[in-house]
Amino acid sequence: MKIKQLQIIVCLALCSLAGIQAQTQIIAHRGFWDKLGSAQNSISSLKNAIDMGAYGSEFDVWITRDSVLVLNHDDYCQGVFIQDATYEEISQLRLANKEPLPTLQAYLAIVGKQKTTRLIAEIKPHDSADDDVKAVGETVRLVGESGLDGQIDYISFSEHVCRELIRLDPRHRVAYLNGDKSPQELKDEGYWGLDYAWEVLKDEHPEWIREARELGLTVNVWTVNRVEQMQYFISQGVDFITTDNPQLLKGLLIR
Ligand code: MG
Questions:
Q1: How many CA atoms lie within 13 A of 137 on its CB side?
Q2: Beta-strand relationship, 218-222 and 193-197
Q3: C-beta neighbour count of 66 within 10 angstroms
Q4: In whole angstroms, how far apart are CA 21 and each of 12, 181, 190, 216, 239?
Q5: How far is CA 193 from CA 29, 73, 132, 172, 176, in A?
């Protein structure tokens, strides 16, 4: 075997051990929803992401007053404040494609039937610290019961949520969204990676991509929807690109 081939094999093995992907991977932002009949954070958007072979399907999760985890981007849905509502009230609401708001449990059931696509769970910052803890605890409990610990990554803008996830199990793959912590700070606090807005990683702190890599942290960037942005971050070797256009990104990656 030639030395060059050996170097590539060793590099791939080390990347794999560190949980780092060799090639940039696709994360469908709020699922692959930009398709006829789908909607953001819907069951169909998750199924579309699985069908296209995305690495991950991102979604947003809140806990209701009666401790049911439901998916929605905003804290309100059609005038109903999710954190104060019961699941019975939420179950009356419909997404743009007429689906009910999915529960986390329904998402887990679908993801558990395949191995290609992971869930990227964004746990939203709740109004009270107690609800943050409840949302994290209930999410981790359901994931554990489903036997899907190995098929979920966690993200949040809330340091409180992230700290609780890491406290419950330091092996949780937790990435921070808020863009205001350096890779070294994240490493020191036990994070798995950073997941920052493209402006942060392109304009404000381009050096963080290299620093994160050197520290063994993963790099995810959001929400990258234009070809030139995608090409830039692919060239920077980020691990994940989170996009509303997963099919477009896929086309660039297989060229
Ligand atoms: Mg999100």
A1: 7
A2: parallel
A3: 11
A4: 8, 22, 19, 11, 6
A5: 17, 22, 20, 11, 7
Q: What is the pLDDT of residues 101-159, one digit of tens each?
A: 999 999 999 999 999 999 999 999 999 999 999 999 999 999 999 999 999 999 999 99
Whether the pTM exceeds 0.85: the reply is yes
Which residues are in the CB-under-5-Å shell of ion ligand 1? 60, 122
Distance 24 CA to ligand 1 centre (A): 19
* Cα-to-centroid distance, 157 and ligand 1 (Å): 9
- The structural domains of the chain, ordered by start, are 23-196 (3.20.20.190)
| 8 A C-beta contact, residue 128 and residue 91 | no
- Note whether 79 and 14 are within 8 A (CB): no
